[in-house]
Each structure stands twice: as C-alpha cells, then as structure tokens.
Design brief:
By secondary structure, the chain is an alpha+beta fold. The chain is built from 9 helices and 15 strands.
C-alpha cells in the first residue's frame, strides 16, 4: 500500500483555507425552544442576541429573559431604570409590564443604548393591539457551516503510512473525528471493517468503516453526547469482523491502526482536555478562543457607540477589552470607566495568560522525547500563532486604554476603528505576505490558527497492520 504525500500537502492548504470559512461564518441567533407560561413571554439570550430583537406584548405581561450562552449577559434599560445585573448561563430575569409604551434595553457586556449590538425593544400595547399585530418572526435556525476539508499534515511519514485521523469540533470541543486513508483493501469474503477508538476509556465503537471501489476511506464520526474524544483515547484501530458477527467486542484481527505517543500527548492534554489554569478546569483552548472572540465584539460595539454618539458606552466597551486581554492579574484591570462596576465577561484569567499557558504546553510537546515530526511541526505552529496573539493583544490593550481615555467622539472614532481591525487580526490572523493564505507562522497566524494546530498535534497516522 502506498500513498502520495503531495495529496496531503494539498489537503493542508485546502484545509486551512476552508477553516477560516468554517470558523468565521457567524452563527445566526436562534435560541433553544423554551416553554411559554400563560401571561409570560420568554426571550432567550442566545448567540449574543436577544431572540427576538423586537416584540409586542399585551399590558400585564411578564417578560422573562433566560441566558443560554456561556458568556454572561445583562438586561439593562437604555434609561437606566431597570438593570438585571449579571446573568450567567441558565439564570433568568423577569419584568412585569403594567404600563403601555416602548422599552429599549441592551446587554451591558455586549451592546449599547440606542439598539446597538446586543439589544432589544419591548412594545407594550393593549390586548386589542396585540391581536391585530403581526406575529414576531424568530430568526431562522442557523444553517450549519461548511465542514472543513481534511487538514493536518503528517510530516516525515513512514513508508507504510496510508492516511491520517484528525480531531475537530462539531457541537463541542473535539467531539468529531475524521479518518482519511487510501490503498485500503476491503474484505471480499463477507467480513466487515469496524472502526474503534482505544485507550484508557476504550475500546469505543465508531461503527462500520466503508471503503470505496478505489480503496479510499473518508469516514467521519460525531459523538452523539458531544464528548471530547481526545479525553481518554490515545489510539485507534480498524478490525476485521467475521460475517454475521454479533459480538459487541472487537475481533482480534486488525487491518489498520494508529496512536499518539504518550509523553507528547500528555503535554498537549491541558490545551485540549482540561487545565487548572482555568478556574473551572476547562481546556486552555476554550477560554482562549472565547476571550479572543469577545474582544472583537466589544471593539465592534465601541465603533457602534461612536456612530451613535455615545461616548460613555465607548469607554465601557474599552474597559471590557482591557479586562478580557489582561485578566485580573493585569496592571490595568478594573473599573476603568469609573462607573462603580468592574465589567469582565470572562473568567478573569485573561487572553494573554491563556496564550502563554498554551505556549508552555506547545513547548513541552517540542521537548518530548517521543514527539513525532508531525507533532513538533504543529506544536511550533501553535506556539508561533499564540505568540502573535500575545504581540497583537498587547498592542490592542494599549489602544483600548487610549480609547477609554478619549475626550471626544472624534478622537474615539480613530482609536475604535484601529482597535476593531486589530482585534479581528488577533482572532483570524492576517495574510501578511499577500499569498492568499493565513499561514501558521510568526506575523500571520492568530487565535484560530493556534486552535486548529493544537488539534493537529494529536492527529494520528494510519498504518497497515503487518500480519
């Protein structure tokens, strides 16, 4: 069995370009269904939006907002008369409307007065008016983003390697995997091929494996429980099951296999599975991604606030950016806009601290005696992209501090626009050399690149089992 490595290089380029479509396409707001109670209207807070944005309710209705996001939100009236304070995931807030009128509100973390960013409008009318009004339309359910093409480069492959297995995200971190191989001989005696993950939590059946007429395999598996498949599994194999087999355990005959070297794997587990650096033990890559994405939202909200002539909201969102970047240990963390409240929608660690922690683990992979060339390649990509986030994040922090001190809207506009551009670069990376690809190198890769290549570190080569 042989494989052309050029195909894998092409897959890398295609995979990286598709990756940016996959991750950048915004998810439309569509809250999970919530049971409605007589006299109560529920508005989910989902995907950084109030769903729906605008609604009419009859006099006497109680409106209940429920936060379905991992991020904290608030329900704050534009005129300041009502403020829910911080609502974490699963928490709710109610208001009963006994006065006819229009009530505008926003999230103090992700919106601004004047229906900017995450905001909404409640129209309270008589029962007769509600009956005559059109039904509010909920935003359509988001269409799934395109699945990224196979991406990890398995470099310095042994001659017998015929493909790779990679982990990716579907509904949650590492809950999907893809097996790609070529030159695979399908059984001709009625036997079937079965796909298994293995390790401390294994073996775990991933179902039958199909081989096309040309000996190619392109098989994906999505865990129905959205479990992290990197956690507890360090290898895989494809077994040959006899005709009519009903035994739930794998047979002793294997066709293909692959594994992740244990020392190098243990070094990357804090990035992909869980780490004490995170207050709730999350994988480092999760809050790192959250912080990098949230600073883009707040930088954009500061531009919106400038456009609406609201300097107070400009400084509030600038405070959010600083606190997200620096974390509680940062020299400038705190109530920068002097409104009496420290606004920080994150866990308080800070994007820069997470980037450095990810670098530490990537460095440990590079130093691991059993790390393959492929693991070292992607560990270096992860390290360099995290360094870019640190460099650009430091610059964004300085801009946000200047924005917080802006004296007028003219000064604020220039800084806010620069900040928004830089935060997008932190999230997405930048094509510095103009070759049409954001590469995982110094000066180009951003958070998304670091995220992807951290997953590539645990990609496995597919090796035929020699009998």
């Amino acid at each position: 069995m042989q494989i052309t490595l050029g195909g894998f290089y092409a897959a890398v380029v295609l995979g990286l370009s598709t990756y940016f479509v996959w991750y950048i396409v915004p998810t439309e707001a569509s809250g999970s269904p919530v049971a409605q109670v007589q006299g109560t209207t529920v508005i989910p807070m989902s995907n950084f939006a109030f769903v729906p944005f605008e609604i009419s309710v009859p006099l006497g209705t109680t409106v209940e907002w429920i936060n379905q996001d991992d991020a904290p939100h608030t329900v704050t009236y534009d005129n300041g008369s009502v403020d829910s304070k911080v609502l974490n995931k699963g928490e709710s807030f109610k208001v009963t409307y006994n006065q006819i009128g229009d009530f505008k509100y926003y999230c103090a973390f992700h919106g601004s007065p004047g229906t900017q960013g995450m905001s909404g409008i409640i129209h309270v009318v008589s029962a007769q008016q509600v009956a005559a009004a059109p039904t509010a339309e909920l935003p359509p359910t988001a269409t799934p983003a395109p699945t990224p093409a196979p991406g990890p480069l398995v470099s310095s492959l042994p001659p017998t390697t015929v493909g790779f297995l990679e982990f990716r995200d579907n509904r949650a971190l590492n809950d999907e995997l893809l097996l790609v191989a070529s030159g695979v001989a399908a059984p001709t005696d009625g036997s079937t091929l079965a796909f298994w993950l293995n390790g401390p939590n294994g073996p775990k059946s991933l179902g039958p494996l199909q081989v096309d007429a040309n000996g190619n395999v392109n098989h994906s598996f999505i865990d129905p429980l959205a479990s992290n498949l990197v956690d507890g599994f360090d290898s895989f194999f494809v077994s040959i099951e006899p005709p009519g087999d009903t035994d739930p355990a794998p047979s002793g005959k294997r066709l293909l296999e692959g594994y992740v070297p244990p020392v190098a794997r243990s070094a990357v587990l804090p990035v992909l599975v869980g780490s004490p650096v995170s207050p709730d033990g999350k994988a480092l890559i999760v809050p790192f991604r959250f912080d990098a994405e949230d600073i883009v939202r707040h930088a954009g909200s500061s531009v919106d606030a400038v456009n609406s002539g609201d300097l107070r909201s400009v400084t509030r969102h600038a405070e959010h950016v600083v606190n997200l970047i620096e974390g509680k240990s940062g020299p400038n963390y705190g109530d920068l806009d002097k409104n009496g409240t420290v606004f920080d929608p994150s866990d308080g660690v800070g994007m820069l601290a997470y980037a450095r922690a990810i670098q530490d683990q990537a460095g440990a992979v590079l130093a691991a005696a059993d790390a393959t060339d492929s693991m070292k390649t992607h560990a270096r990509h992860t390290f360099d992209s995290a360094q870019n986030v640190i460099d650009w994040g430091t610059q964004a922090d300085e801009l946000a501090l200047k924005l917080n001190s802006a004296k007028d809207l003219g000064e604020a506009r220039t800084i806010a626009e620069q900040l928004e551009k830089l935060t997008i670069q932190i999230r997405d990376g930048v094509d510095a050399n103009g070759n049409g690809i954001i590469e995982p190198v110094k000066g180009e890769g951003g958070m998304r690149t670091a995220y992807l290549h951290a997953q590539y570190i645990v990609a496995m080569g597919v090796v035929p089992v020699q009998e």
